[in-house]
């Protein structure tokens, strides 16, 4: 994180830093701990997305359920300071894990049908809100416990758990919904699996709230100054632009998982369950680990742009290849791998930008921005798929991705060519 310009910001009192030595855990611990976060999203984007049209809902209503899961992720920045200023990170994790388990149970227990659509939407929304606090806890732990040289590796393993949770949670959810007679049975199983992830929590050191030993006013002020320093820096601005543009969103997977869309390639429930569920989780997990190590060489921001370009090429190829189950399977898995690459690069460039202070607040300022294109691209792609067909939907995904990369390249190039005026503008602001 860039130093603050000369002035009042330099007189800001830093929050108490943890002075005792803490051994950084193996990143695989984060892979396990973040699984409930991914599973909460995966149940909505895979299980509910597929069951929507099978249960009498439209393609756009299925996309609304996916968007309901994403909506809190767009706005979570506004309540992220709560996690920085109150309980320790491990306590927040335990509390949010219990809430995620309850949300998974409630969402699975209510039968999906047109009369219950709004209730299921509300449950998906509540489960996603609970998942935000689980993310806050883990992001704070990672920011405080990870040395700079290890950010790429940790980002890869962390997003591997997120991707695996999305795929495995969606796949298990769809299998349970297809093979059990009662929704509450699948809800109990999903809730128990969610709670089981907390078993590895003792393997990771705790990080106390940054407001420990200070007044509420001072804690809020320190958080605000930490955030202001980040958004005024060159790294912060370029990272924010990468979050806003529709690059590496992975939004097409939520549309491809719908039964009516998958049928265009001759893909049935077995294909969707396997490709968008279990195999998706494994392949995207591998992609995240590869992407994390790739960012050690490329850097987070460059890696994100490169991996986003690969994703755009994959969706274009899927649109041009024959519409067969083999195309659906191979291209969906390639898309999952590219999504893992992009998500690992995202965590890497965010960790490069935020430093350790007020980690949940700053991480989720950028994460909220990054979920905005995932949200609106999901709705745009669903509308294109319904009104113009799946091939045009894939071309739209590619076109938006390439446009986003171009915007980032232009801004980064302009900043490099004229560094002085931009820096002066930021300081004057």
Summarize the structure.
This protein has 18 helices and no strands. The protein is mostly helical. The longest helix is centred in the middle third of the chain and has 30 residues.
Task: Give an account of the 3D structure.
By secondary structure, the chain is mostly helical. 76% of the residues lie in helices and 0% in strands. The protein has 18 helices and no strands. It has helices spanning 28-33, 35-54, 59-75, 81-85, 89-109, 117-145, 151-179, 183-196, 216-232, 234-244, 252-256, 259-262, 269-298, 300-320, 325-354, 359-388, 390-417, 419-428. The longest helix is centred in the middle third of the chain and has 30 residues, at 269-298. It is globular. Mean pLDDT is 80; it is low at 1-21 and 420-429.
């Amino acid at each position: 994180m860039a130093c603050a310009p000369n002035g009042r910001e330099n007189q800001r009192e830093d929050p108490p830093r943890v002075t005792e030595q803490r051994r950084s855990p193996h990143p695989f611990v984060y892979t396990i701990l973040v699984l409930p976060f991914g599973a909460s999203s995966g149940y909505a984007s895979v299980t509910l997305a597929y069951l929507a049209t099978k249960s009498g809902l439209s393609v756009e209503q299925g996309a609304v359920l996916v968007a309901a899961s994403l909506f809190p992720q767009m706005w979570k920045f506004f309540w992220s300071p709560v996690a920085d200023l109150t309980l320790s990170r491990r306590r927040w994790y335990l509390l949010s894990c219990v809430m995620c388990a309850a949300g998974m149970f409630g969402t699975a227990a209510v039968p999906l049908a047109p009369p219950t659509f709004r209730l299921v939407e509300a449950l998906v929304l509540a489960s996603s809100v609970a998942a935000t606090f689980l993310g806050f806890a883990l992001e704070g732990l990672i920011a405080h416990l990870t040395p700079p040289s290890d950010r790429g590796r940790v980002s890869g393993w962390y997003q591997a758990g997120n991707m695996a949770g999305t795929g495995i949670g969606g796949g298990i959810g769809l299998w349970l919904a297809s093979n059990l007679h009662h929704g509450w049975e699948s809800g109990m199983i999903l809730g128990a699996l969610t709670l089981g992830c907390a078993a590895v929590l003792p393997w990771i050191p705790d990080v106390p709230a940054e407001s420990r030993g200070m007044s509420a006013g001072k804690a809020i002020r320190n958080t605000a100054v930490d955030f202001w320093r980040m958004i005024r820096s060159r790294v912060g601005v370029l990272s924010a632009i990468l979050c806003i543009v529709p690059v590496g969103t992975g939004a097409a997977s939520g549309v491809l998982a719908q039964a009516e869309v998958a049928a265009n390639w001759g893909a049935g429930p077995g294909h969707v369950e396997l490709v968008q569920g279990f195999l998706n989780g494994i392949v995207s997990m591998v992609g995240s680990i590869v992407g994390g190590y790739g960012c050690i060489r490329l850097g987070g921001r460059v890696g994100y742009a490169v991996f986003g370009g690969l994703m755009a090429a994959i969706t274009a190829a899927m649109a041009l290849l024959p519409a067969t189950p083999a195309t659906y399977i191979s291209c969906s898995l390639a898309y999952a791998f590219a999504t893992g690459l992009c998500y690992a690069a995202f965590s890497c460039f965010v960790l490069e930008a935020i430093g350790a202070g007020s980690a949940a607040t700053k991480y989720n300022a950028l994460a909220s921005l990054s979920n905005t294109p995932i949200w609106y691209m999901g709705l745009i792609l669903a509308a294109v798929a319904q009104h113009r067909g799946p091939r045009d939907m894939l071309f739209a995904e590619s076109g938006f991705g390439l446009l986003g990369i171009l915007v980032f390249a232009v801004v980064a190039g302009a900043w490099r060519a004229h560094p002085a005026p931009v820096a002066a503008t930021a300081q004057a602001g």
